[in-house]
Amino acid sequence: xxxxxxxxxxxxxxxxxxxxxxxxxxxxxxxxxxxxxxxxxxxxxxxxxxxxxxxxxxxxxxxxxxxxxxxxxxxxxxxxxxxxxxxxxxxxxxxxx
Length: 97
Hints:
By secondary structure, the chain is an alpha+beta fold. It folds into 3 domains: 1-34; 36-66, no CATH class; 67-97, no CATH class. The chain contains 3 helices and 3 strands; from the N terminus they run H-E-E-E-H-H. A 3-stranded antiparallel sheet has the order 1-2-3, with no helix packed on it. Strand 1 (39-44) and strand 2 (48-54) form a beta hairpin. The chain is flat and about 65 Å long.
């Protein structure tokens, strides 16, 4: 398979130009329109934890149960229980005995 160097250089330079203009455009938009930083407000209820994220254009309310465990933490605990280090497994076995 023979590669034409002129065609390869042209394609590489186009890819580079697209990347540079994308970075410059995103910097311009960030400078022009500013950061859209969310204001966080936490409200504690008797049964729920409520977080309110408010930006310039949106308002998002997230309601958690009081004793809820995130799915990522549950998955991480499951993986650690199955594939955890041998020292942790030995410590758990000695504690159970």
